[in-house]
Amino acid sequence: MYACSKALAKPILRGVLTVGDTWIFPLLALNSHSDGAQYWQSDEISILTVTPPGRAHITPPWPDIIAGILADWTMHSFEDIESGDDWFEVGL
């Protein structure tokens, strides 16, 4: 993400990491001199539960919630997190 942010000359970059049923939404903010960055990430969001004997069940949050987050995240790919205006809030 750091190399991509620098190559695109964008000080903010949002991303997503997934294995298909588990999602993490990271955000990168370049330092003012582009000599480093800060990273934040969402909590891990899982939409699949496996119960014995190996049966998988889709659980909340439902896949449509993930689709909504992805749509919002894509629309605001290069924007910083705005307090109250975003699904993602930077924790301490």
Distance between the termini: 22 Å
* Spatial order of strands in the largest sheet: 1-4-5
Radius of gyration: 15 Å
Coarse morphology: elongated
Query: How many structural domains can be distinguished in the coordinates?
Result: 1
Would you list the SSEs in sequence order as H and E? HEEEEEEEEH
Largest sheet: 3 strands, antiparallel
Mean pLDDT, to the nearest integer, reads 85
Strand content: 25-35%
**Uncertain ranges:** none
Which oligomeric form is depicted? Answer: single chain
Number of distinct beta strands? 8
Q: Helix- and strand-based class?
A: alpha+beta
Would you give an account of this structure?
The strands form three sheets. This protein has a three-stranded antiparallel β-sheet with strand order 1-4-5, covered by helices on one side. The protein has a three-stranded antiparallel β-sheet with strand order 2-3-6, with no helix packed on it. The chain has a two-stranded antiparallel ribbon with strand order 7-8. It is α+β, with helices and mostly antiparallel strands. The longest helix is centred in the C-terminal third of the chain and has 13 residues, at 63-75. The radius of gyration is 15 Å and the shape is elongated. It has helices spanning 2-8, 63-75; strands at 12-14, 17-18, 22-24, 26-30, 37-41, 45-46, 48-51, 55-58.
